[in-house]
Amino acid sequence: MFVLLPPSETKRSGGGFASLDIDSLSFPALNRRRRTVVRALKTLAKDEDATVRALKLGRTQLAEVHRNATLVTSPTTPVIDRYTGVLYDALAADTLSTDARAFAGEHLLVHSALLGPVGGLDLVPAYRLSHDSRLPELSLKKHWAGDVSLVLEKVGGLLLDLRSEGYVALGAAAGHPQRFFLRVVTEGTEGQTRALNHFNKKSKGEFTRALLENGQDFGTVEDLLAWAATAGLTLRPGAASELELVVTGH
């Protein structure tokens, strides 16, 4: 089983490990494309005004330009410790048990716009690049979509896709035989279902944390659904190749 998360625009600075080593990342078939994006982002960072426009930065976010300019020399930290924001605050990687972190290293993936899908404990620098960023002469969607789809479709076992649709566009896994896209929904008093927006991130983080702490490598979606029922989670089949995580109070 693999859980595939979106990244976050916000990231912690610093890190306790050496600078970026692309050859150490998961999915080495993507390394050539990773190097291309890294070079493009470094080149863009030489022009502050162009970077502000391309990455849609505010004038108070100019430190992000420096992050990109130094992304190949700055220290790295594990993926699950790098990202912040609603989803990753709910995941609370720094409070995971030792076993849960080890499980994340084997079964958690995060889809970065800079590096493509990476493993949960892969070492990455701080950077700024989103799925909808516009690099000069480089369309992230065209650059990533084909090769990312190929590597994701080859991932073995159950694949739970918790990405936002913007990151799915950078590489769908529609050809994966056991890929299920997770939607977070809530039900009204009369049983009507509606999707959540902001609160879906928190729910995805809490759900991922529960999976990591549980530490079971579910072989089928039926096994996953059976566990969820015992864990106090309302998880059910949705549309074709989709699951619905039903939450209350939003």
From TrEMBL:
This is Peroxide stress protein YaaA. Pfam families: H2O2_YaaD. It comes from Cryobacterium arcticum. GO terms for biological process: response to hydroperoxide. InterPro entries: YaaA. One of its GO terms (cellular component) is cytosol.
